[in-house]
Amino acid sequence: MILLVTDPLYRKKGFATKLLQGVLLTTEFIKVRKIFLEVSKQNRTAFEFYQKNGFFIIGQRKNYYVSQNNVDAFVLMRTL
Ligand SMILES: CC(C)(COP(=O)(O)OP(=O)(O)OC[C@H]1O[C@@H](n2cnc3c(N)ncnc32)[C@H](O)[C@@H]1OP(=O)(O)O)[C@@H](O)C(=O)NCCC(=O)NCCS
What we know:
It is a single chain. With 80 residues, the chain is α+β, with helices and mostly antiparallel strands. The chain has a domain of 49 residues. The protein has two helices and three strands. Strands 1-3-2 form a three-stranded antiparallel sheet, covered by helices on one side. It is globular. The model has no long low-confidence stretch (mean pLDDT 95). The structure holds coenzyme A. The site of coenzyme A has 17 residues, from helix 1 and helix 2.
């Protein structure tokens, strides 16, 4: 599992994009073809980030974030 977080002081400067690019580069060596992830429906910032980086919605999971009042998640996918 990967948790992607940028220190609030350094957001919107391209750091998460660089981190994600690093992860994507690694996956090339193990022949990954698709990446799936969940993002909270309430996390607009993360959703925008993933969308900008080629992910799109393929489904949703109801009540996925149990510790956050059962917020639903979008399931996103990106092909490589
Ligand atoms: C989501 C997160 C990792 C983005 O990190 P970041 O380093 O600020 O991201 P980047 O600077 O690489 O942003 C790349 C793009 O994402 C989108 N984006 C980033 N922050 C955004 C915001 N506040 N509002 C809207 N879009 C945003 C933009 O499209 C941005 O491109 P632009 O700068 O050309 O507009 C960061 O906001 C974060 O740590 N959030 C809390 C943890 C979290 O929610 N992680 C994801 C869990 S699934």
